[in-house]
Design brief:
Distance between the termini: 81 Å
Helix content: 25-40%
CATH class: Mainly Alpha
Structural class: alpha+beta
CATH architecture: Orthogonal Bundle
Shape: globular
Order of helices and strands: EEEEEEEHHHH
Pfam family, one: DUF5606
CATH topology: Arc Repressor Mutant, subunit A
Strand content: 15-25%
Strand order of the largest sheet: 4-3-2-1-5
Number of helices: 4
Radius of gyration: 27 Å
Length: 169
């Protein structure tokens, strides 16, 4: 899943894709069917990049992208964002069992599920992120290097070369 360039705008519902930037702010395109373009003033609106959002947990914070990947791999039915808060909390506890129940509010869970339902309808849902591509390349490079090392014949020891000495005649 590639969420690079996706942002949430304070006071605006839904998610937006960052298209560009001008002097006064950012140019965004909505991820819904209308694909409306919007210019957001940097001084009056707050943008939150989905890549930078984390969820509080008992250990380290969990990246939103990892939560989305877990939901994507989930085998059961995913509740709608309008479900009862107890149902949403039970679902989220199943998905992210170590989340901090005091710091992660029901509204946060609702927002995450709503964002996931928006993203799953876009081509970005099945697109591989740059980070995952780099990781795949690194794994492939390691595998190739291991093959090369295994196939490389061990060099036979060559006898030490005799030092030439100059004779004074």
């Amino acid at each position: 899943m590639n969420i690079a360039g996706l942002v949430a705008v304070s006071g605006k519902p839904g998610l937006y894709k960052l298209v560009g930037q001008n002097k006064s702010g950012f140019i965004l395109e909505s991820l819904d069917e209308q694909k409306t373009k919007l210019v957001v003033n940097m001084s009056t609106s707050k943008l939150a990049s989905l890549e930078d959002i984390t969820i509080y947990s008992d250990d380290d914070d969990i990246r939103l992208k990892d939560v989305f990947e877990t939901i994507k791999a989930y085998q059961g039915s995913i509740p709608e964002a309008k479900e009862d808060p107890k149902v949403l909390r039970a679902f989220f506890t199943e998905i992210v069992p170590n989340h901090d129940t005091e710091k992660v509010y029901n509204s946060d869970i609702k927002k995450i599920i709503n964002w996931f339902s928006i993203i799953k309808t876009t081509p970005l849902f099945d697109e591989v992120s740059e980070e995952a591509k780099e990781q795949e390349l690194t794994q492939e490079e390691v595998a190739v290097a291991e093959e090369v090392v295994e196939k490389k014949p061990k060099a036979a020891k060559k006898p030490a070369a005799k030092k030439a000495t100059a004779k004074n005649d």
